[in-house]
Amino acid sequence: MGLFTYRFIEGLTEAEKQARRRALDNYGLAAQLSDLLPVVLILLYRLTKWVVRERVDGSANGEYAAVPSSPVMKKRREEGVRSWSVRKRRLRWWLGEDVVAAGHVYGQRDQWIVGVVWFLWLAVLSVKDTGEDYLHLTKRFGIVAVSQYPLQYLLSLKSLNPFSYLLKSSHEQVNRWHRVSARVTTTLLFIHAALYLNFYIQNNRLYRLGVPLVLAGVVAFFFLNLMLTTALRPVRRFSYRLFFITHLLLAISIPFLILFHAAPARPYMIQALLVFFVDLISRKMDTVTGHAKFESIPGTNLVKLSAAIPHVKINRFRGSPGSHIYLSIPAAARATFQDPTSISHLLFEFLFNPFTVASVGEQESEVTMIARHNGGPMTAALGHYAVLAKQQQQQQQQQQPPSRSANSLSIPDARNEGKIPLNIEGPYGSVTHFPNLGQFDRVLLVAGGVGATFTVPVYKSVVAENPNAKVKMVWSVRTAGDATWALLREGLMDDENVQIYVTGVTEGRTRGGVWDQQQQDGGEGSGAEGTEMSRMFRRRSGSNSGGSGGGGAGGRFTSLHNRQRPDLRRVVDEMFRHGQEEKVAVVVCGPEEMARELREYVGVWVRRGRVVWFHKEGFGF
Ligand SMILES: Cc1cc2nc3c(=O)[nH]c(=O)nc-3n(C[C@H](O)[C@H](O)[C@H](O)COP(=O)(O)OP(=O)(O)OC[C@H]3O[C@@H](n4cnc5c(N)ncnc54)[C@H](O)[C@@H]3O)c2cc1C
Ligand SMILES: NC(=O)c1ccc[n+]([C@@H]2O[C@H](COP(=O)([O-])OP(=O)(O)OC[C@H]3O[C@@H](n4cnc5c(N)ncnc54)[C@H](OP(=O)(O)O)[C@@H]3O)[C@@H](O)[C@H]2O)c1
């Protein structure tokens, strides 16, 4: 007995087997080609929008002056367009809301809706024309699932991601759909595996699980589940490395196992591997080695690193403020502080951490990043280099030849210049796909902590393009020192449109214990900049007004010892109160909680029909 009306049909003729094979191949292909449908729909939508805009512009130019002639008709038409636009905006906003269950966020509504529709469509393709043939149904789920692999891999690409261009988005944003695709295909493969298992059990053929061809499929399925489990948010939070290394290795091995397991799946697996490796090659070609200077920021666990990069590349950074790079440390730079045969040395081969380019040199070909030591291996290494740079500086000041302390890191090749070679891949990011922020009536940029590495360059570029732009940046930091790099060095010190809230204590941070110790060893923690910041904050807190975090001074800045966050609801309401017709852009980069809260407050205005462009910078929310 099979499943419902399905039967185990024995003794099919060769012609019947051929027909089944053809049906399997055709439906696999149909499933893959149907992936193009959303692409076509998006392009059609764009085309329609463009045509409509052309017509409206034409009308504004007088081409359509006669249509409609009556002011009543014209008003009615405008109202119709407006109410349609409001509905569309509300729907788009609603689709972007988080799906929360038991206090945890499980993606956004659009991901769930697309995921369910996508799954149902593929399930239809898996069932259609399978008759009563249980094995046909079983195999169909398999072939339809693997037909999605090329798309799934395409959606995960960093460098050559076609969807980034199509959706005008960064690869991080596109990655949301990679996750949806992975869940859909794994569900289909789960059904495929379950149906086969049922077949083996009911026909006393469990021994077949040991046959190499079948075993490859079983192992692939096990790997798939391992991949999905290690990609879960709690695991990623526990160890990003565990997720990353498992994901990478399994992403390469699963297609090879499936290649061996099922011949009809080969074209799809080859396509998936091809796009994966082509992207990898492109990423390698786009990686440059830059020699970096390190500096620790007093009283914080921040490291400032400025890396020289080739002239040919610098313009790409200049053209995309707020972009980020993937940083890795070449073996040469870590040879002397790590045993080359150790596990941690090997681990570094898999470290590609994203950091935002906080500023790009105007004269020199140099990019600057500000990195917070988060306790992980990459930021710990950056912290080590900063401590070492400080020690070298002190030694030079004392006119002593540089020496190695017992546990110090040594700077390899570039030691004489005090610079460390770093591999820099990028730039990446969504800024290149941003609308022109200058076209908005108001722009609100909100940053939390080191998230300002994104908002500061965006702020500066908006102001540079249009000095009269109504742009406001609200930045919440734990300590005054966290803002030094931008206020003292990026010229934001006396900028009235930049509001800073200090929510914690002024003393050095305690989160990165190791780092604090190293800072002390390196003699950091109370430099001139720290003193300058304290003075500046006192000065500004006494002279400004308007924010919620008033502290004792009642100003835009909190009292240095007063833990108070910016009142984001108030900030948002103030931004939107100026005029019903004003278009507002809101950009946030910082802790997830901050971004979520801000979205909630902005949502109130979207529901009231306001034109809002909202962007939450980040990854893996
Ligand atoms: C687009 C982007 C830009 C960022 N810019 C900055 C910045 O300018 N300054 C700053 O201090 N921090 C920034 N971060 C956060 C920074 O990447 C992590 O704090 C850092 O990688 C942690 O490294 P670690 O060695 O301490 O810990 P790890 O264990 O290596 O990583 C800890 C966390 O960092 C994130 N992470 C690490 N590697 C990756 C990766 N390849 N892709 C995506 N996320 C990863 C994950 O959330 C992970 O859980 C940014 C993050 C993103 C996604
Ligand atoms: N391009 C990017 O995607 C990018 C770039 C850089 C950083 N980041 C991310 O940005 C985050 C910054 O981390 P960090 O360690 O630097 O931050 P942090 O030091 O913890 O500072 C965060 C600040 O924001 C405040 N805050 C948090 N939630 C808030 C809310 N709901 N309303 C108002 N204020 C709020 C905090 O106040 P309290 O002190 O009261 O908590 C604190 O002042 C990280 O998650 C990092 O990955 C992303």
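^ NAP complex. The longest helix spans residues 171-202. The chain has three domains: 14-39+100-284, 287-431, 434-617.
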